[in-house]
Automatic annotation (TrEMBL):
Record protein name field: Protein-L-isoaspartate O-methyltransferase
Organism of this sequence: Streptomyces labedae
Family the entry assigns: Belongs to the methyltransferase superfamily. L-isoaspartyl/D-aspartyl protein methyltransferase family.
Main location (coarse class): cytoplasm
EC number from the UniProt entry: 2.1.1.77
SUPFAM superfamilies named among the record's database cross-references: S-adenosyl-L-methionine-dependent methyltransferases
Gene that this sequence comes from: tgmC
Length: 350
């Protein structure tokens, strides 16, 4: 199937509609960022992505359907110009979008972040004309393109740990006329060849603030990143770097989450049943239900961040009704099991 002749016209109309909707929601208060969103063709950066099917498979796994212009032009273009995060990669496997196949379950490892959040990140970092910026996590390149449109390509450096992902992003960026500095690099260490920067913005999360980023930011410069942990608690922080190389700042409001930097991702911990086998047989009643931190609420979102600050190496998984907590560093483990007459019961060791 060939691409419709009026693709650019269709895309321009949908891009205008998306821009007006974002402006109405207060996302594009800065005219310069609005102009960037109006200009950058997002469809050039997402030749394919995955959307969830209406039903799970026989094993209860989410079925992720590939969406491309060739498979369903209308669905592809409409989703592209919606304020939605589009998953483009699972488990580090770069898809062949000329012959894509459905995915069953899996961990998303790359995406095109929803446009409102992309703009919010640049705005929260107080990026403006004349700033040199380092973006950590090129992804599809759409966010990079917005920065280039606003600042000019010469002031934008973007790094990506996945060489195949960067190759796709580079092709899209150069095809649209943007020429930022691009490199395959681990965001944990920044990018020394282009340092120092006025702003560093990370589109992935870290367990702690990487020291290299402090060293690569000019005094008075700012770093915007997301702190996360293995309990999947998140908090965004905006830091200002001082003359002595230290930095301080505040946690920003909201419930924003990003994929972990791959070197900070949680390790595989094995079979929960193996961890539970060595626990004491006699349980005790807990003061709080695990829903206190697992519920889909803003309070639980922030409580997860506080909980993982106390137990930074703990991980959590649920099997049936039983919640398992394991710590691959210390070997500690616990289970929480619903009780019929009282609160949840816990068994713990080490």
């Amino acid at each position: 199937m060939t691409m419709p002749a009026d693709l650019e016209t269709d895309a321009a109309l949908l891009r205008e509609t998306m821009t007006k909707a974002l402006a109405k929601d207060g996302v594009l208060a800065d005219p310069a960022w609005r102009a960037a969103v109006e200009t950058v063709p997002r469809h050039q950066f997402v030749p394919g992505f995955y959307l969830p099917a209406d039903e799970r498979d026989a094993n209860g796994l989410t079925v992720w359907e590939p969406v491309t212009a060739e498979l369903d032009y209308g669905r592809w273009l409409a989703a592209t110009y919606s304020d939605t995060t589009l998953i483009t990669q699972f488990d580090g496997d770069e898809p062949d979008w000329k012959a894509p196949v459905a995915r069953h379950g899996g961990a998303s490892t790359s995406s095109s972040t929803l446009p409102s959040l992309v703009v919010r990140m640049w705005a929260d970092a107080e990026v403006t004309e004349g700033h040199t910026v380092l973006e950590i996590g090129t992804g599809t390149g759409y966010s990079t393109a917005l920065a280039c449109e606003r600042l000019g390509s010469a002031d934008v450096t973007s790094i990506e740990v996945d060489p195949r992902r960067l190759e796709q992003a580079a092709s899209a960026l150069y095809g649209c006329g943007y020429t930022p500095t691009l490199a395959v690099a681990d965001g944990l260490y920044g990018y020394w060849p282009e340092a120092s920067f006025d702003r560093i913005v990370a589109a992935c999360s870290f367990r702690a603030v990487p020291p290299a980023l402090l060293a690569q930011t000019r005094p008075g410069g700012k770093i915007l990143l997301t702190l996360s942990g293995w309990l999947y608690g998140y908090a965004r922080v905006l830091l200002t770097v001082a003359e002595d190389g230290t930095a301080e700042g505040r946690l920003l409001p909201g419930t924003v989450s990003f994929m972990s930097a791959r070197t900070h991702a949680a390790p595989a911990f094995g079979n929960p049943a193996h961890w539970a086998a060595g626990l004491p047989e006699k349980p005790r009643t807990t003061r709080q239900s695990p829903e206190r931190i697992t519920a889909a609420t803003e309070e639980a979102f922030h409580l997860r961040f506080l909980a993982q600050s106390a137990v930074p190496d703990a991980q959590m998984t649920t099997v049936g009704e039983v919640v398992h907590l394991v710590d691959v560093v210390t070997g500690s483990a616990a289970t929480l099991t619903p009780a019929r007459t009282a609160g949840p019961c816990a068994r713990a060791a080490r």
